[in-house]
Known about the structure:
The strands form four sheets. Strands 1-9-8-5 form a four-stranded mixed sheet, with helices on both faces. The longest helix has 22 residues, at about 365-385. The chain has helices spanning about 10-15, 20-35, 40-50, 65-75, 90-100, 120-125, 145-155, 205-215, 235-250, 250-270, 305-315, 345-350, 365-385; strands at about 55-60, 80-85, 105, 130, 160, 170, 175, 180-185, 200-205, 280, 290, 295-300, 350-355. The chain is an alpha/beta fold.
Amino acid sequence: MTGSTQVPLLDINRDNEPHRDEFVEALTAVVDSGRFLFGPDVVELEKEVASHSQAEHAVGCASGSDALLLSLMALDIGPGDEVIVPSFTFFASVSCITRLGATPVFVDICPDTFNVDPECVADAITDNTRAIIPVHLFGQCAQIDRICQIATEHDIPVIEDAAQAIGAAYHSRPAGSWGLAGCFSFYPTKNLGGMGDGGMLTSNDATFADRLRLLAGHGMRPRYYHQAVGINSRLDTFQAAVLRIKLRHLDDAVESRQQIAARYMNLLCDAGLVGPDQIVLPSVDPNAFHVWNQFGIRVAGGRRDSLRGHLGERGIGSEIYYPVPVHRQECYTHLKVDSASLPETERACAEVLNLPIFPTLTEAEQDRVVEGIAAYYQAGAKIAA
């Protein structure tokens, strides 16, 4: 859509533009070095992400999806094993389990934060549970302290899916430093987004981190001698060079996202749009440092899709994360999961609508978003009258 009223869901080019000269200089240096894999930028980025996440070790890989897969591979998870995971998440949180022949055990979410419910996690543990994957959704940590407590009581490792949550924290402790491993994505839409795919694993366990690094390189050590069957999952130097620049600006970008989120809250409230029959605002756990990868509202009364269509007609971007829970995806019908056991997951998939949020979103663009939502409800009121 075109026109002066268009508001994009996100604008990667606008966010990247202030750093363009830095990117070009860094990429030129990589070209001149010829070290496209295992270059010094990769090593330095690993150190910087480890420090930023208050973890002892970090291991680069090709994507956030691979980070999750490598974590489970390092735990030797396979057929007969169960891994507890939410269904209100991106597909990669679950596909890493089934690719290894293990069984995902889906648990429900908290209705306020959309994050996995720790008590549901506790109830789902069996003798076959080999790992728990809490997802820090939309940039806000799950109740990771309680989840880790539950896991410790049962001697079960926790693998944090922090793909959307770099820089987030719980009780001032960063995402990626709580569990046995933290899994990050550098997909371009993430708060720390590259110019292609990329990922990172963090861990405070030196032996586990070494195992991750081994498996990410075909299980090869030394060259052409394979200790294990791994995969080929490398973070290339081009991506690392770009990400090192963006990491230096990440705190400022997060602050902008937080200001935008706070302004949305005020604007939507002031417009009289917040209420059980209209919009429910995102909830912030008082123990969480939220980095707002997404701003997800609930739209009540079965009107979410209608509202999204209305915004689209006005040139206002939005997205539904996620319209279909993972347990109902076509490829998982054989698991025969009863949707009635996941009521909050099903409700979130029917109600959540994600509004534009990115560091360079302007106040005028925010105003247009809120005006578009107000116009939708005003039109509905007139029809009802």
